[in-house]
Write a structure and sequence with these properties.
By secondary structure, this protein is mainly alpha-helical. The chain contains ten helices and no strands. The longest helix is centred in the last third of the chain and has 31 residues.
Length: about 220
């Protein structure tokens, strides 16, 4: 039987994991464009970043980063900058080139080459997670609330909570990827893919703007 703290943790973790964010939106887009399995492989980047943050939290480095205004600000602006770049690139790439326009004018234009390597998608997931100050807050400020400081072995408790959160987030990410893969399997037109990329890019830019003005 789970203790009250663990029960409260899982409820909070599920709510946080299913809430749409930059990484979940990226999984949805990757699956829609390239299929469920490419999106799932790319998740290894996100969870590699999360494991680094969990290890840092268990070692006490997360609290030090939170205590340092300069360090937190540096992480924050790296995240803002990368999301602006990623969102802007999505929007830019969604506009066809002159050659693409000529192809679209033909009776049966071939599909545009839009696939990206799994390594590219994995790197995107890693960078979005690693430079997201909200992820740092999640592991360095959220997890300690559910540790039992009277029971000792706090680093081990934090590590266990971190791994448990990663498991919850993984299930939520699979759900986002499944939805994206299902929609992508419906043979969307190239125009629909472009519109979705523009919407995704615009959302990434909006998230970057929110992070820029958000206080801890």
């Amino acid at each position: 039987m789970l203790g009250a703290q663990w029960q409260a943790f899982f409820v909070a973790a599920v709510v946080m994991a299913v809430t749409p964010g930059a990484n979940q939106l990226l999984s949805l887009r990757n699956a829609l464009r390239q299929g469920f399995w490419d999106a799932v492989v790319a998740l290894s980047g996100r969870f590699a970043a999360f494991l680094i943050l969990v290890a840092a939290t268990a070692a006490g480095l997360g609290a030090l980063l939170l205590a340092s205004e300069a360090a937190f600000t540096a992480v924050k602006w790296c995240g803002v900058g990368y999301l602006l770049f990623l969102g802007g690139r999505m929007i830019y790439d969604s506009f066809p080139s002159v050659e693409g326009n000529e192809r679209e004018a033909r009776p049966n234009p071939p599909a545009l080459p839009t696939r990206q390597s799994r390594w590219h998608l994995t790197r995107q997931e890693f960078l979005v997670a690693m430079t997201n100050p909200k992820a740092l807050l999640l592991f360095a400020a959220f997890l300690p609330q559910f540790a039992d400081y009277g029971a000792g072995a706090v680093p081990l408790q934090l590590a266990a909570l971190g791994v448990a959160y990663i498991a919850v987030e993984f299930v939520a990410a699979l759900a986002y990827a499944a939805v994206g893969g299902r929609v992508g399997a419906v043979s969307l037109t190239d125009r629909a893919h472009r519109l979705f990329d523009r919407a995704t890019g615009g959302t990434m830019i909006a998230i970057a703007g929110w992070l820029a003005v958000e206080r801890r």
